[in-house]
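Reading a protein record of the kind used here takes only a little practice. Think of the row as the fold of the chain written in a discrete alphabet. With that in mind, consider the following protein and its fold in token form:
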Amino acid sequence: MEAIERYLMHFVPTDGDSNASMLEDLAELFEQAAVDGTSIREIVGQDPVEFVEAFVQNYSEGGYVLARERKRLTDALTRAAGEDTGSEEDQTA
């Protein structure tokens, strides 16, 4: 739990409210798993980064910001390569 929380704090952009809600839900998930006798691998699988990235998508602000920035990066590189991204931005430029 501490390692996941540390990863979230350093690498996942969220606003304060989303962050608090996300951490509460994560703690609840692990508490319930402990009660049920569920192993850590059953929760996070073999790739903890993949688990965290998927978990964070449930929190709109963090998911939205990350998705928006990924699209911006991809579109910028596509434009730099002289390719059409298909976005309105390209059509008005």
Notes: DSSP finds six helices and no strands in the chain. The chain has one domain: 2-82. The chain has a mean pLDDT of 80.
